[in-house]
Amino acid sequence: MKSSLRLPIRIKAKHKLMKWDVVLNPVFFMYKNAFEVKVIEGSLSSSIFCCKITEFEYNWYAKCQIWLIWKIYWCRNVFWRYVRYQFPYKVRMCFKTKKPVSDDLPF
After folding, report:
1. Residue 67 C-beta-side C-alpha neighbours within 13 Å
2. Residue 49 contacts residue 18 (beta carbons within 8 Å)
3. Does some domain include residue 18?
4. Domain count, the chain
């Protein structure tokens, strides 16, 4: 299942190998070190591709943007999944009434 972020964030980057100056719009984080981007400006304009975060060089502002986007993605998908499915079960188990043990054991 793929969930998109679709945030209006523009990240200026330079490809390390090809030396392309591009402006990226992150669409989806697959893993912590890879993401899907849409190129807004540059030689690869209007193309969407998956890449590792380390394939590009960023300034400090772009690194902060990537960190912020990753945290938003984590909160929306990973943490919310925990709150939605695991937390209610743990709360129920904490307040579950225990049946008293009866003395009429057969042995």
Report:
1. 7
2. no
3. yes
4. 1
State the amino acid at position 18 in one-letter form: M
Dihedral angle, C-alpha 13, 15, 21, 25, nearest 10 °:
-50
Q: Residue 100: inside a domain, yes or no? A: no
- The residue with tokens 């400090």 is 60
Task: Copy the structure tokens of residue 57.
Answer: 């060089």
Assess if residue 102 is contained within a domain: no
State the Rg of the chain over Cα. Answer: 23
Q: Summarize pLDDT for 6-50 with one digit per residue, the tens.
A: 667 788 888 888 887 888 887 766 666 777 777 877 777 778 778
Instruction: Say whether 24 sits in a helix, a strand or coil.
Output: strand
Give 73's contacts (C-beta < 8 A, 6+ positions apart): 5, 29
> How does pLDDT run across 68-97, given as a tens digit for each residue?
888 887 787 778 777 778 777 777 776 766
Q: Which domain holds residue 52?
A: 11-94
Contact 28, 38 (CB under 8 A): no
